Amino acid sequence: MRGSDVSRDPCPWVILNDAGGAFAMGAIGGGTWHYIKGARNSPYGERFRGGMNAMRARGPIIGGNFAVWGGMFSTFECVLKGIRQKEDPWNSIGSGAITGGMLAARGGWKAASVSAVFGGVLLALIEGVGIAMNRTFAQQPPPMMPPPPAQ
């Protein structure tokens, strides 16, 4: 495949890797969020226990939601790479749109359409920022020295 990223695993393993990473990110972030929320809503003297209970109850659920999103996104990205035979930002943008639409499909066509547009726009913004950062912070090649004069 032209322009393929050789630093990543092949597609079946990328899906599992991304789903696992998304689960970890969601469980840690969601656990932290719900710990703080549980501690704030607990009576004085029970804040630590209330935070821990909320974290244990909701952290894995948020992690699972993140894992579903990450797994679906990676699956659709692999499918688009296979169909298009290219690796470019359009695969990520399309994957974000398809994932957003599929996750909201139970809500009907209107909800799926809105979520698909939102997912595509969100991934377009993420890809655009990534491209801009790469261009801004990319190391410029050193200037070429003129050849030495012949003697």
Q: Could you list some keywords that capture this structure?
A:
151 residues, mainly alpha
Q: Outline of this structure?
A:
By secondary structure, this protein is an all-alpha fold. It has 4 helices and no strands.
Distance between the termini: 48 Å
Helix-strand string? HHHH
What is the number of strand segments?
0
Q: Mean of residue pLDDT?
A: 90
Using the CA coordinates, give the radius of gyration: 22 Å
Structural class determined from secondary elements? mainly alpha
Report low-confidence residues grouped into runs of 5 or more: none
Range of strand content: under 5%
- Tell me the number of helical segments per DSSP (H or I, 4 or more residues long): 4
Largest sheet: none
Helix content: over 70%
Shape: extended
Walk me through the structure.
By secondary structure, this protein is mainly α. The chain contains four helices and no strands. The N and C termini lie far apart (48 Å).
